[in-house]
Amino acid sequence: MSETTFKIGDKAPSFALKAHNGKPFDMVDYFGKQPVVLIFYPGDMTPGCTIQLCNIRDDWSKFEQAGITVFGVNHADADSHGKFATKYNFPFPLLIDTDKKVSKKYGAIKKLFSATVIKRTVAAVGLDGTIKFYRHGMPKDTEILKSINK
């Protein structure tokens, strides 16, 4: 499986998914209107993912002040996402990528033995629809914010 990688300035792939709250999300609706941060994460209620998404929650006012919309993206269903979002009081929606097609478009997939799993990845998309920040792992929120506010 070849891994998709992005360089700063590449056009962000568009996609449409549903959020855990049932609301539709279409990336195209944000191009030219609002920067978006996509947090691809392996699993609801897992230690690393909980830390990463809680960090975003704790810095939420900084994202709001910068006019940035944040979405978590994972393959779990609405029920799992809803329980995770409620338990940790996330102020942002969790998108349902059941077949991992969007995760694959964003290079947030890896092989783990015979399974295909979501690789922890952060992608920030600017107003112009291009990638402003792209990193695997758990980058600091300050790095993400700085990349968009350039």
Describe this structure in words.
The chain starts with 15 loop residues before the first strand and ends with a helix. Strands 2-1-5-4-3-8-9 form a seven-stranded mixed β-sheet, covered by helices on one side. A two-stranded antiparallel sheet has the order 6-7. By secondary structure, it is of the alpha+beta class. The chain has a single domain (16-148), classed as 3-Layer(aba) Sandwich (Glutaredoxin). The model has no long low-confidence stretch (mean pLDDT 92). 27% of the residues lie in helices and 27% in strands. The protein has five helices and nine strands, in the order βββααβαβαββββα.
Number of domains: 1
- CATH homologous superfamily heading: Glutaredoxin
Q: How do the strands of the widest beta sheet line up side by side?
A: 2-1-5-4-3-8-9
Rg calc: 14 Å
Mean model confidence by pLDDT: 92
CATH architecture: 3-Layer(aba) Sandwich
Strand runs, count? 9
Name the beta content range: 25-35%
Please provide the ordered H/E string of secondary-structure elements: EEEHHEHEHEEEEH
CATH fold label = Glutaredoxin
Principal-axes shape call = globular
- The unreliable regions are none
What order do the helices and strands come in, and which of them pair?
Blueprint: E1 16-19, E2 24-26, E3 36-40, H1 47-58, H2 60-65, E4 69-74, H3 78-87, E5 94-96, H4 101-105, E6 109-112, E7 115-118, E8 121-125, E9 131-136, H5 141-148
Parallel strand pairs: 3-4, 4-5
Antiparallel strand pairs: 1-2, 1-5, 3-8, 6-7, 8-9
